[in-house]
Amino acid sequence: MTPITQITELARAILADSPSDADVESAISKAVDLVYEQGGSSRDWDESTIRKSVESALLGYGSLQEIIQDPEIEEIWINSPDRVFISKNAETTQLHLGLDGLAVRQAVEKMLRDSGRRLDRSEPFVDATLANGSRLHVVIPDVTRENWAVNIRKFPSTVLKMSDLVNRNSLTHELAEFIKSQFHLGKNILI
Length: 191
Hints:
Helices cover 41% and strands 18% of the residues. With 191 residues, it is of the alpha+beta class. Helix 1 packs across helix 2, helix 1 crosses helix 3 and helix 2 packs across helix 3.
């Protein structure tokens, strides 16, 4: 277990259900001291980095917080803790966030809290809307082979115009003109 995971779990056990920022800071300090005293880790690690990661795990979505808040990221896929992909500017990139299965589960459970939805063997997949309007889809084992599969589709902050789609090579100029003409004729368009 990594120092971040150890400290996060200890701090979580110290805290009540709805912690204030002061409670979180106090719980993290106690957890850091406990881990150090138990010999579970040394003070060689960067304590400020660990504190920031633990605070993000307790109050936000852990390592996922930054990519969820990034307005340029359009979609996030978690196929397993070590296979996290993002779509940014219509390009897919794999990230190495240092997640483990527990971190993924805890982040998803926080995301689902406001929706009132749940995941378990009787309901092994869920669709929900996050507070920022993003769509969340999660599937758990036994439907998946081994790991929780998570997809977060974020809504772009700007709406693309037809010319933007042509410039990004998503549409040819001819197809864009055809779609426009069909729209003006009142035809149904299925996308």
